[in-house]
Amino acid sequence: MINIFLMSEPDIEGYIRENLPEYFAADEKLVCKEIGDGNLNYVFRLANENGKSIIIKQAGEELRISRNLSFLQTEEEELRQMFFSYRVNMHRVLFQKFIYMMK
Prior knowledge:
Helix content is 30%, strand content 19%. By secondary structure, it is of the alpha+beta class. It has helices spanning 9-19, 75-94; strands spanning 30-34, 41-48, 53-59. It is built from two helices and three strands. It is elongated, with a radius of gyration of 16 Å.
């Protein structure tokens, strides 16, 4: 089972510095901004003062909006979300060497 946690702007710099330490110089000042506004993924841009940046996209366990609408879900909607989650996990397995996964 994968341990999933949702990152926020303050988490991104530490995550990149730990997992991709060569991407930015250790003494660079970095700025993070959430740039996604969809209802599925969380998208962040971490940039230095010269404009070099990296985009981090994180999928949550559920639709962002579904937390607010859980009382409206039908059995069909729950099945659709279950199959979507299964499909996302299958892509992760099939394309693992092409995707940088969080630890």
